[in-house]
Specification:
single chain, about 200 residues, alpha/beta, seven-stranded mixed beta sheet, two-stranded antiparallel sheet, about 35% helix
């Protein structure tokens, strides 16, 4: 059994590095590989390439790869790369973030229009990958990620099918992290929802 750690944004160099590490583990005879991943996301093209690569090596070499979320995974790393794994697990304190495709553009109006059309195509591909493994609809995914980042706890990620298992990282009697913020009480015992979450340190 081998372990590969990936703690980078996804780009051409880091994608090649990750594939090299997995290829080396396979060459050493590993039939089970744990990919420990912490990533803010990155290039959707490289992520889709990794998605194809992981499916290929698992099928062609009879390798089983577990994606293990440590810290957080966001954007393309959560929506595409993690979903290529035979098994997906997450530590209880880890977070997952999903959102719409982001892009920057310049040039003529027609050029920008063509780039936007391409962004919509790859976003559709990413949502197709994600919706094939989660137990909520593509329409729900689009609604939750419309014009915002959707941050999800480990427990919630398991509940909606983003991962298969929340790892038991704490000994009996140890207080594990809270799953989701609870509503705060005000005078008169009325419930007042918490106004957002403090997520600046993730950005």
């Amino acid at each position: 059994r081998g372990t590969v750690r990936f703690n980078f944004a996804i780009d051409e160099q880091t994608s090649t590095f990750l594939q090299d590490q997995v290829d080396e583990a396979i060459a050493c005879g590993c039939k089970e590989i744990t990919l420990s991943i912490t990533s803010p996301g990155g290039s959707i093209y490289e992520a889709l390439g990794l998605f194809d690569y992981f499916h290929y090596v698992q099928r062609e070499h009879g390798v089983r790869i577990e994606g293990r979320v440590n810290g957080y995974v966001a954007s393309a790393s959560a929506m595409v790369v993690l979903q290529a794994m035979a098994h997906r697990s997450i530590y209880p304190s880890a977070r997952v973030m999903l959102h719409e495709a982001h892009f920057g553009s310049g040039g003529t109006t027609s050029a920008v229009g063509k780039q936007l059309a391409e962004v919509r195509i790859v976003q559709k591909m990413a949502f197709n990958v994600l919706s094939s493994r989660v137990n909520i609809t593509e329409a729900q995914l689009k609604r939750e990620t419309l014009n915002k980042d959707w941050w999800i706890s480990a427990q919630k990620a398991r509940d909606i099918g983003l991962v298969d298992k929340v790892l038991d990282a704490y000994p009996p009697g140890h207080v594990a992290p809270l799953d989701e913020p609870k509503p705060s009480r005000t005078k008169g015992n009325k419930i007042k929802p918490l106004e957002g979450e403090l997520l600046d340190f993730f950005m």
